[in-house]
Amino acid sequence: MALAYSKVPSGTTVIPSPFQVHVSDEQIEELQLLVKLSKLAPPTYEGLQQDRKYGITNEWLANAKEAWKSLDWRSAESRINSFPQFTFDIEGLTIHFVALFSERKDAIPIVLLHGWPGKLTFLEFLPALDSIRAKYSPETLPYHIVIPSLPGFTFSSGPPLDANFTGVDTARVINKVMLNLGFEDGYVAQGGDIGSRIGRILAVDHESCKAVHLNACYMGKPSNVPDTAITEEDKRALARAQWFGTYGSGYALEHGTRPSTIGNVLSTNPVALLAWIGEKFLDWADEAIHLETILESVSLYDDSTSAYNLVIVLTLTQNVPPPKLRQAEDPRWYIRKPFGFSYYPKELVPTPRAWVETTGNLVFWQAHEKRSVDKYGLEEIEMVPRLPWIVYSMLGRLHQANSDMRIRH
């Protein structure tokens, strides 16, 4: 029996292949064996610091390893498979995506672009999709929601071996996903973290992307923005960004300069992968994330054999060595289409409104008092289930401000 919300739109030009997650018993047993046999590092002064000033603690990793042995993966798999999933073959890649399709003819297509680690792709959105399913039926859902796993993440193929696969290439592939689904007349993109970079490229390079909403804009201070435009809240947020750049971004240098080395480490030892990813889940959220959630995410990461591919993909976004202009600073990537932005003062690298305004046709700005939602669905705040509502609200304002813009399917 077909899942609700799985009926593809009537304008679909290429029928996607249905997909369900199934990790074999052999893979599960292998992971459990590797976890059991993996040795823990001996206690050190650095590893005993409970504030995690020097990284993951010996105690947390030992407890997490023990809990991993009894993780019920089949339960997690069943929950994931309660959502419609599909794949497309595009440019020699298999692209996995989760979708909630509407049966309304006026439904607005939205593509949601994940970040990193972000529960490692589509998982970060599932709590929001649960809220949407509770509120709408397929007959009343006002939008088509498409959540692709970016190339190299989980069940999407890794980048080709004979070419440098860039963010421009990723955006082109994601645009083809939307065109295959019949959304050539228009769709809206939403992105955070890595997804914000892909979303910006979609808005600039692809006609069918009619509007974009971002919650990250990595850049330095524009020369034409006076200091008086920066609020006291902005100053506090920028101090946080400076701290992160000094003390929290070492992983990015490793990804950007020695991807093969760290990729091999993370692909061959699940406990090493748990330490590397677990640290980010613990440090990048203001409230504790359930250990089971972290273990499910890392298990999916390991079982889908994407650890190495993902590090390679991340090298494309780390700007090592730093370019003369970051993406948002480059006139090539100025967004001329309607552009919305959500600001979180506790984002890792928050960007003041006065700076963001220099990067595109900013028509919607929403400042949030609560913490970052870079990892949608992980952080249990009211904002998370309403993420698509923000995009929809933005689109409504755009219709009022620009009556000749029409998104239809």
UniProtKB/TrEMBL annotation:
One of its GO terms (biological process) is epoxide metabolic process. Keywords: Hydrolase. The keyword Hydrolase applies. Gene3D superfamilies: alpha/beta hydrolase. Residues 17-119 form the Epoxide hydrolase N-terminal domain. SUPFAM superfamilies: alpha/beta-Hydrolases. It holds the Pfam family EHN. GO terms for molecular function: epoxide hydrolase activity. It comes from the Eukaryota. Belongs to the peptidase S33 family. This is Epoxide hydrolase.
